[in-house]
Design a protein that fits this description.
7 helices; single chain; 170 residues; 2 domains; mainly alpha
Length: 170
């Protein structure tokens, strides 16, 4: 009986892990090529060494590969987390960043167990679009000082005044 179970397990592993090797390698390569610049950019936004972002992104990808996921599931660093972690890293360092990341994972597991993802349908589309647009603006503002080497608020105010009309309409 044990031999039959072992053969079934081996067949299941072959079917699950090795049924489409070519497509899996291509998908993994594409994800890796997209993940590297994203991890570096988000670590710069969060104010940590880019190596930290690369190690974290690699860890997330490996854990997701072995624990499992769903088609279309995105398991990577996000701009929202990078923006939220700026102040945390500046005030408390990398130890608190690690603790906050683990706590975020625990909260996500609790939400999944409570099946709160099904409640997302009650969030209006306009709210989701607004969140994504605000996130894009915040990421842009976080990168602006590196782009023009001036504090972000001063650059935005200066550029805003330059675009104002020089005369008022009649």
């Amino acid at each position: 009986m044990m031999e039959l179970e072992d053969k079934l397990n081996i067949q299941m592993v072959r079917r699950e892990w090795f049924s489409n090797v070519k497509a899996d390698i291509l998908a993994g390569t594409l994800v890796a090529l997209a993940l590297i610049p994203e991890a570096i950019a988000f670590s710069i936004i969060a104010g940590v060494d880019p190596k930290v972002g690369l190690y974290a992104s690699f860890s997330i990808a490996v854990i997701t590969a072995f624990v499992g996921g769903r088609p279309g599931l995105i398991s990577a660093a996000t701009g929202a987390m990078a923006l939220l972690m700026i102040t945390l890293v500046k005030q408390h360092g990398l130890d608190y960043l690690f603790a906050a990341t683990v706590l975020t994972g625990i909260i996500q597991i609790i939400f999944a167990r409570l099946r709160l993802g099904s409640k997302l349908k009650y969030v209006p589309r306009a709210v989701m679009i607004g969140f994504v647009n605000a996130l894009a603006i915040l990421i842009f503002m976080a990168q602006l000082p590196q782009l023009i080497n001036v504090p972000c608020q001063r650059a935005l105010i200066t550029n805003s005044f330059k675009t104002l009309p020089t005369h008022s309409p009649r």
